[in-house]
Amino acid sequence: MDDANAVDVAGVPASTLNLIDLSSSDIRRSVSLLKQACLDSGFFYVINHGVNQDLMEEVFVQSRRFFGLPLSEKMKLLRNEKHRGYTPLFDQVLDPANQINGDYKEGYYIGVEVPEDDPRAQKPHFGPNLWPSEDILPRWRQTMEKFHCQALNVAKAVTRIIALALDLEADFFEKPEILGEPIATLRLLHYEGLVSDPFKGIYGAGAHSDFGFITLLATDDVPGLQICKNKDAKPLKWEYVQPMRGAFIVNLGDMLERWSNCIFRSTLHRVIGNGQERYSIASFLEPNHDCLIECLPTCMSEENPPKFPPVQCQTYLSQRLDDTHADLNVYRSEGA
Protein backbone atom coordinates (compact mmCIF):
# COMPACT_ATOMS: atom_id res chain seq x y z
CA MET A 1 0.00 0.00 0.00
CA ASP A 2 1.41 3.39 -1.01
CA ASP A 3 -1.04 5.75 0.67
CA ALA A 4 -3.28 5.98 3.69
CA ASN A 5 -7.05 5.80 3.39
CA ALA A 6 -8.84 9.11 3.65
CA VAL A 7 -11.37 9.27 6.51
CA ASP A 8 -13.70 12.17 7.22
CA VAL A 9 -13.30 13.60 10.76
CA ALA A 10 -15.98 15.97 12.06
CA GLY A 11 -16.87 17.11 8.55
CA VAL A 12 -13.26 17.89 7.55
CA PRO A 13 -11.81 15.55 4.89
CA ALA A 14 -8.67 13.56 5.62
CA SER A 15 -5.70 13.81 3.32
CA THR A 16 -4.38 10.82 1.40
CA LEU A 17 -0.62 10.70 1.96
CA ASN A 18 2.03 8.51 0.42
CA LEU A 19 3.74 5.81 2.50
CA ILE A 20 7.50 5.51 2.23
CA ASP A 21 8.81 2.12 3.37
CA LEU A 22 12.37 2.66 4.59
CA SER A 23 13.01 -1.09 4.50
CA SER A 24 12.16 -1.36 0.80
CA SER A 25 14.92 -2.35 -1.62
CA ASP A 26 13.08 -0.59 -4.45
CA ILE A 27 14.76 2.78 -4.00
CA ARG A 28 13.46 4.06 -7.33
CA ARG A 29 9.88 3.57 -6.16
CA SER A 30 10.62 5.21 -2.80
CA VAL A 31 12.13 8.22 -4.56
CA SER A 32 9.12 8.47 -6.87
CA LEU A 33 6.62 8.32 -4.00
CA LEU A 34 8.56 10.84 -1.93
CA LYS A 35 8.99 13.24 -4.82
CA GLN A 36 5.27 13.12 -5.56
CA ALA A 37 4.51 13.81 -1.90
CA CYS A 38 6.97 16.73 -1.72
CA LEU A 39 5.47 18.30 -4.83
CA ASP A 40 1.89 17.73 -3.71
CA SER A 41 1.55 18.28 0.04
CA GLY A 42 4.98 18.30 1.66
CA PHE A 43 3.71 15.55 4.01
CA PHE A 44 4.11 11.76 3.93
CA TYR A 45 4.38 8.75 6.23
CA VAL A 46 7.48 6.63 6.78
CA ILE A 47 7.09 3.05 7.98
CA ASN A 48 9.50 0.22 8.79
CA HIS A 49 11.93 2.87 9.96
CA GLY A 50 13.74 0.76 12.54
CA VAL A 51 12.53 2.44 15.74
CA ASN A 52 11.14 -0.27 17.97
CA GLN A 53 7.43 0.05 18.74
CA ASP A 54 8.08 -0.63 22.42
CA LEU A 55 10.43 2.35 22.54
CA MET A 56 7.90 4.60 20.80
CA GLU A 57 5.24 3.60 23.32
CA GLU A 58 7.63 4.14 26.24
CA VAL A 59 8.35 7.68 25.04
CA PHE A 60 4.64 8.44 25.17
CA VAL A 61 4.33 6.88 28.63
CA GLN A 62 7.22 8.98 29.91
CA SER A 63 5.87 12.10 28.21
CA ARG A 64 2.51 11.68 29.94
CA ARG A 65 4.28 11.25 33.26
CA PHE A 66 6.09 14.54 32.86
CA PHE A 67 3.07 16.54 31.74
CA GLY A 68 1.07 15.00 34.59
CA LEU A 69 3.34 16.65 37.16
CA PRO A 70 2.10 19.74 39.03
CA LEU A 71 2.73 22.96 37.14
CA SER A 72 5.05 24.15 39.92
CA GLU A 73 7.32 21.14 39.27
CA LYS A 74 7.29 21.66 35.51
CA MET A 75 8.09 25.35 35.85
CA LYS A 76 11.32 24.43 37.68
CA LEU A 77 12.44 23.18 34.25
CA LEU A 78 11.25 26.23 32.30
CA ARG A 79 13.00 26.55 28.95
CA ASN A 80 16.18 28.58 28.81
CA GLU A 81 17.81 30.74 26.13
CA LYS A 82 19.07 27.58 24.40
CA HIS A 83 15.50 26.33 23.98
CA ARG A 84 15.91 23.48 26.42
CA GLY A 85 13.18 22.53 28.84
CA TYR A 86 9.50 23.15 29.51
CA THR A 87 7.22 25.45 27.51
CA PRO A 88 3.92 26.30 29.28
CA LEU A 89 0.52 26.91 27.74
CA PHE A 90 0.49 29.98 25.46
CA ASP A 91 4.30 30.19 25.43
CA GLN A 92 4.25 29.92 21.65
CA VAL A 93 2.15 31.97 19.23
CA LEU A 94 2.42 30.49 15.75
CA ASP A 95 -0.37 32.47 14.06
CA PRO A 96 -0.55 35.87 15.79
CA ALA A 97 -2.90 37.32 13.17
CA ASN A 98 -5.59 34.80 14.10
CA GLN A 99 -4.86 33.67 17.69
CA ILE A 100 -6.17 35.41 20.78
CA ASN A 101 -3.79 33.97 23.40
CA GLY A 102 -1.36 31.54 21.84
CA ASP A 103 -1.09 27.79 21.37
CA TYR A 104 -3.14 25.69 23.79
CA LYS A 105 -0.27 23.27 24.22
CA GLU A 106 2.62 22.65 26.56
CA GLY A 107 5.90 21.20 25.43
CA TYR A 108 9.40 20.12 26.35
CA TYR A 109 12.54 20.74 24.28
CA ILE A 110 15.46 18.30 24.26
CA GLY A 111 18.46 19.06 22.06
CA VAL A 112 21.94 17.78 21.33
CA GLU A 113 23.61 17.24 24.71
CA VAL A 114 26.73 19.42 24.85
CA PRO A 115 28.49 20.05 28.21
CA GLU A 116 28.69 23.65 29.37
CA ASP A 117 32.51 23.63 29.17
CA ASP A 118 32.52 22.36 25.58
CA PRO A 119 33.38 25.19 23.09
CA ARG A 120 30.38 24.13 20.98
CA ALA A 121 28.10 25.17 23.86
CA GLN A 122 28.75 28.78 22.82
CA LYS A 123 26.55 28.19 19.78
CA PRO A 124 22.92 29.30 20.18
CA HIS A 125 21.30 25.87 19.82
CA PHE A 126 23.87 23.66 21.56
CA GLY A 127 24.34 23.15 25.27
CA PRO A 128 23.33 20.94 28.20
CA ASN A 129 19.74 19.78 28.42
CA LEU A 130 17.44 20.26 31.39
CA TRP A 131 16.43 16.90 32.86
CA PRO A 132 13.77 15.99 35.44
CA SER A 133 15.07 14.33 38.58
CA GLU A 134 15.50 10.56 38.39
CA ASP A 135 13.76 10.41 41.77
CA ILE A 136 10.63 11.92 40.24
CA LEU A 137 10.78 10.38 36.76
CA PRO A 138 13.03 7.30 36.68
CA ARG A 139 14.34 6.25 33.22
CA TRP A 140 13.01 9.49 31.72
CA ARG A 141 16.33 10.83 30.47
CA GLN A 142 17.49 7.40 29.26
CA THR A 143 14.30 6.91 27.26
CA MET A 144 14.40 10.35 25.66
CA GLU A 145 18.09 10.18 24.72
CA LYS A 146 17.63 6.77 23.11
CA PHE A 147 14.62 7.90 21.10
CA HIS A 148 16.30 11.19 20.15
CA CYS A 149 19.28 9.29 18.69
CA GLN A 150 17.15 6.79 16.78
CA ALA A 151 14.84 9.46 15.38
CA LEU A 152 17.89 11.34 14.10
CA ASN A 153 18.99 8.21 12.23
CA VAL A 154 15.52 7.93 10.65
CA ALA A 155 15.62 11.59 9.61
CA LYS A 156 19.01 11.11 7.96
CA ALA A 157 17.67 8.11 6.06
CA VAL A 158 14.83 10.28 4.77
CA THR A 159 17.30 12.99 3.65
CA ARG A 160 19.01 10.43 1.39
CA ILE A 161 15.76 9.83 -0.48
CA ILE A 162 15.10 13.58 -0.62
CA ALA A 163 18.55 14.12 -2.13
CA LEU A 164 17.87 11.56 -4.86
CA ALA A 165 14.48 13.15 -5.52
CA LEU A 166 16.30 16.46 -6.11
CA ASP A 167 18.76 14.81 -8.55
CA LEU A 168 21.61 14.98 -6.04
CA GLU A 169 23.92 12.27 -4.74
CA ALA A 170 22.26 10.26 -1.96
CA ASP A 171 24.75 11.47 0.66
CA PHE A 172 24.60 15.13 -0.41
CA PHE A 173 23.02 16.38 2.82
CA GLU A 174 25.24 14.19 4.99
CA LYS A 175 28.34 16.15 4.05
CA PRO A 176 30.22 17.43 7.11
CA GLU A 177 29.37 21.04 6.27
CA ILE A 178 25.62 20.30 6.18
CA LEU A 179 24.72 17.57 8.68
CA GLY A 180 28.10 16.99 10.28
CA GLU A 181 26.90 18.52 13.56
CA PRO A 182 23.18 19.07 13.02
CA ILE A 183 20.80 20.95 15.25
CA ALA A 184 18.55 18.01 16.15
CA THR A 185 15.72 18.75 18.56
CA LEU A 186 13.14 16.51 20.17
CA ARG A 187 9.97 18.22 21.36
CA LEU A 188 7.35 16.52 23.51
CA LEU A 189 3.90 18.06 23.09
CA HIS A 190 0.70 17.84 25.12
CA TYR A 191 -2.61 19.35 24.04
CA GLU A 192 -5.22 19.74 26.74
CA GLY A 193 -8.73 18.42 26.18
CA LEU A 194 -9.92 21.68 24.67
CA VAL A 195 -12.27 22.14 21.74
CA SER A 196 -10.65 24.54 19.26
CA ASP A 197 -12.69 27.31 17.69
CA PRO A 198 -10.91 28.93 14.72
CA PHE A 199 -13.65 31.58 14.52
CA LYS A 200 -12.69 32.71 18.02
CA GLY A 201 -8.92 32.35 17.51
CA ILE A 202 -8.61 29.25 19.71
CA TYR A 203 -6.19 26.62 18.39
CA GLY A 204 -4.14 23.74 19.77
CA ALA A 205 -1.39 25.10 17.52
CA GLY A 206 -1.84 27.99 15.15
CA ALA A 207 -1.31 27.71 11.41
CA HIS A 208 2.38 27.71 10.51
CA SER A 209 5.06 26.06 8.44
CA ASP A 210 8.01 24.42 10.19
CA PHE A 211 11.23 26.41 10.27
CA GLY A 212 13.95 23.91 9.43
CA PHE A 213 14.90 21.00 7.19
CA ILE A 214 12.46 18.16 7.97
CA THR A 215 10.23 17.15 10.88
CA LEU A 216 9.32 13.64 12.04
CA LEU A 217 6.14 13.41 14.08
CA ALA A 218 4.93 10.48 16.16
CA THR A 219 1.36 10.84 17.45
CA ASP A 220 -1.10 9.04 19.67
CA ASP A 221 -4.41 7.93 18.15
CA VAL A 222 -6.24 11.24 18.66
CA PRO A 223 -6.74 13.24 15.43
CA GLY A 224 -5.85 16.92 15.43
CA LEU A 225 -3.22 17.70 12.81
CA GLN A 226 -4.55 19.51 9.74
CA ILE A 227 -2.71 20.61 6.61
CA CYS A 228 -3.46 23.18 3.92
CA LYS A 229 -1.96 22.22 0.58
CA ASN A 230 -2.55 25.63 -1.00
CA LYS A 231 -1.72 28.51 1.32
CA ASP A 232 -2.79 31.02 -1.36
CA ALA A 233 -6.37 29.66 -1.57
CA LYS A 234 -9.23 31.86 -0.37
CA PRO A 235 -10.60 30.56 1.91
CA LEU A 236 -7.96 28.11 3.09
CA LYS A 237 -8.99 24.47 2.73
CA TRP A 238 -7.88 22.15 5.52
CA GLU A 239 -7.50 18.36 5.60
CA TYR A 240 -6.79 16.06 8.54
CA VAL A 241 -3.64 13.94 8.64
CA GLN A 242 -4.69 10.67 10.24
CA PRO A 243 -2.63 9.13 13.05
CA MET A 244 -0.92 5.90 12.03
CA ARG A 245 0.36 3.56 14.71
CA GLY A 246 4.11 2.97 14.51
CA ALA A 247 4.64 5.40 11.62
CA PHE A 248 6.29 8.80 11.51
CA ILE A 249 4.47 11.63 9.78
CA VAL A 250 7.17 13.56 7.92
CA ASN A 251 6.89 17.11 6.69
CA LEU A 252 9.28 19.50 4.99
CA GLY A 253 10.45 22.73 6.58
CA ASP A 254 11.12 26.21 5.25
CA MET A 255 14.86 25.61 4.86
CA LEU A 256 14.23 22.78 2.41
CA GLU A 257 11.73 24.94 0.54
CA ARG A 258 14.46 27.59 0.21
CA TRP A 259 17.08 25.00 -0.76
CA SER A 260 14.79 23.60 -3.46
CA ASN A 261 13.72 27.02 -4.74
CA CYS A 262 10.09 26.23 -3.85
CA ILE A 263 10.06 23.02 -5.90
CA PHE A 264 9.46 21.10 -2.67
CA ARG A 265 6.88 22.55 -0.31
CA SER A 266 6.90 23.58 3.32
CA THR A 267 3.20 23.21 4.00
CA LEU A 268 0.96 25.21 6.27
CA HIS A 269 -0.42 23.10 9.14
CA ARG A 270 -2.17 23.50 12.48
CA VAL A 271 -3.63 21.48 15.37
CA ILE A 272 -7.35 21.55 16.11
CA GLY A 273 -8.48 20.21 19.48
CA ASN A 274 -11.64 18.08 19.63
CA GLY A 275 -12.06 17.87 23.40
CA GLN A 276 -9.68 14.93 23.87
CA GLU A 277 -6.18 15.14 25.31
CA ARG A 278 -3.57 14.61 22.62
CA TYR A 279 0.14 13.81 22.80
CA SER A 280 2.74 13.96 20.04
CA ILE A 281 6.51 13.77 19.73
CA ALA A 282 8.21 15.97 17.13
CA SER A 283 11.81 15.44 15.97
CA PHE A 284 13.22 18.44 14.13
CA LEU A 285 16.30 18.10 11.94
CA GLU A 286 18.20 21.25 11.01
CA PRO A 287 21.68 21.56 9.44
CA ASN A 288 24.86 22.72 11.17
CA HIS A 289 24.77 26.18 12.76
CA ASP A 290 26.97 27.74 10.07
CA CYS A 291 25.45 25.89 7.10
CA LEU A 292 24.49 28.31 4.35
CA ILE A 293 21.00 27.66 2.99
CA GLU A 294 21.11 28.67 -0.66
CA CYS A 295 19.46 27.44 -3.82
CA LEU A 296 20.67 23.99 -4.87
CA PRO A 297 22.30 23.77 -8.31
CA THR A 298 19.70 21.26 -9.49
CA CYS A 299 16.85 23.59 -8.55
CA MET A 300 17.66 26.69 -10.60
CA SER A 301 17.97 27.69 -14.21
CA GLU A 302 17.88 30.83 -16.34
CA GLU A 303 14.10 30.54 -16.40
CA ASN A 304 13.93 29.78 -12.68
CA PRO A 305 16.56 31.83 -10.81
CA PRO A 306 16.94 31.62 -7.01
CA LYS A 307 13.93 33.07 -5.19
CA PHE A 308 15.65 33.61 -1.81
CA PRO A 309 18.96 35.13 -0.74
CA PRO A 310 21.38 32.78 1.07
CA VAL A 311 20.90 32.62 4.84
CA GLN A 312 22.87 30.94 7.62
CA CYS A 313 20.98 28.20 9.43
CA GLN A 314 21.49 29.52 12.97
CA THR A 315 20.45 33.03 11.95
CA TYR A 316 17.22 31.89 10.34
CA LEU A 317 16.31 29.40 13.06
CA SER A 318 17.03 31.80 15.93
CA GLN A 319 14.89 34.51 14.37
CA ARG A 320 11.93 32.19 13.80
CA LEU A 321 12.07 30.83 17.35
CA ASP A 322 12.35 34.31 18.85
CA ASP A 323 9.43 35.50 16.74
CA THR A 324 7.08 32.77 17.97
CA HIS A 325 8.03 32.24 21.64
CA ALA A 326 7.32 34.45 24.62
CA ASP A 327 10.16 36.58 25.98
CA LEU A 328 11.64 34.76 28.97
CA ASN A 329 11.49 38.02 30.92
CA VAL A 330 7.72 37.53 31.08
CA TYR A 331 8.23 34.55 33.37
CA ARG A 332 10.91 36.28 35.42
CA SER A 333 8.58 39.21 36.11
CA GLU A 334 5.76 36.81 37.06
CA GLY A 335 8.04 35.09 39.56
CA ALA A 336 9.25 38.33 41.11
From TrEMBL:
It comes from the Eukaryota. Signal peptide: none annotated. Belongs to the iron/ascorbate-dependent oxidoreductase family. One of its GO terms (molecular function) is metal ion binding. PROSITE patterns: FE2OG_OXY. It holds the Pfam family DIOX_N. It comes from Eucalyptus globulus (Tasmanian blue gum). This is Fe2OG dioxygenase domain-containing protein. The lineage of its organism: Eukaryota, Viridiplantae, Streptophyta, Embryophyta, Tracheophyta. Residues 182-287 form the Fe2OG dioxygenase domain.
